[in-house]
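Field: sequence (string)
Field: structure_tokens (string)

Example rows 1 and 2, in order.
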Amino acid sequence: MLMPERLESHLAQEHIPYSLVLHGPARSAQVAASFMHLPGKEVAKSVALCAAGKPLLAVLPASYRINVAKLSAILREKVQLMEEQKCNELFPDCEAGAIPAFGELYDVPVYMDQELADDPEIVFSAGTRSDSVRMGNADFVHLVKPRVCSFAEKNR
């Protein structure tokens, strides 16, 4: 599977410089980070969630986990993982578990954890289990306009 056409077109249309990083098929962002010889903190994962029946994406370092209570408090709504079927319907051009962090392409708001906000670059899934995108974090924030807040904590 290739990077979703809508993501590739979006980056080209906005004249955003990026590089595509190919790696072995990864079942998680943390595994992708190890394939790319990067620390998990430097690779972002996107997690599809629901709050009050509405979808959202949480973008956080691969080596972190979502503190659901913190994110629920930020949203003032109970947050839960999106069901797999709903996820497949909402992101039909992506492989399961490989959602790119560009929620605006799917009309889904993005919440970015503060831990990623100060990094000069961001690396995230390109919509497949074997492709990742590396780009400037400022370009990412400019395009996606995520709400930056603190909701993640390091895995133990």
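Row 2 begins here:
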Amino acid sequence: MTTLRPELGVLPARIARLPLDARGYPVPWFVAWIHGAPEFRVMDPDKYVRAIRERRCWVCGDTLGKHLAFVIGPMCAINRTSAEPPCHHECAVWSVQHCPFLSRPQMVRREDALTDTCIRGEAAIMRNPGAAGVWTTTRFRLHRRQDASASGYLIEMGDPERVEWFAGGRPATRAEVEASIDSGLPLLLEATTHEVTERDRPAARAVLVQRRAEIDALLPPPEACL
């Protein structure tokens, strides 16, 4: 019988109800099971539909209340979109603290023929951002992807009531989040302008630059000078 990895400690009640994989990690509700085993890199498309229609937590699968917590990277905070549905706040925080990919900046995403079938977001940047945020809001809306080569929808997150930042499984410093922004923004600008017409590119870039400035208020406070 598989047992929980001891370093994970006491799980939140909703996370504790999830099945464990062979390594002892809880398997999030959204994960696709392939040949009887969970494939963490692939989301179950039926779960995606249910999460949106039934307002279910992306991590535990239980129904959501008023507040919705999105697990995002800094670039998602800039364009205010997410490819993944929201979670309970405690499920989102647990994920950014314990998910190996989110809590270990040195980890890279394994890509192969299987992951090519995954739903990818508009202007997706396939990298480990090194810092992750929990964007808590009370609303979201769907809109179709602009990229004609992609199908499906993106989720536009509502105004945040708060945003919490993490790096390495702990609260992130402002410098860590800014470093992630500085490395990711050029990639986001390139990806976004690639998906619009040449005539619309200057306006699209200007919007992103403006949104980058706006999120300064959502970052951790500056570190005190010693």
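free_text_note (row 2): The helical segments are 13-16, 45-53, 74-79, 89-98, 100-103, 174-194, 201-214.
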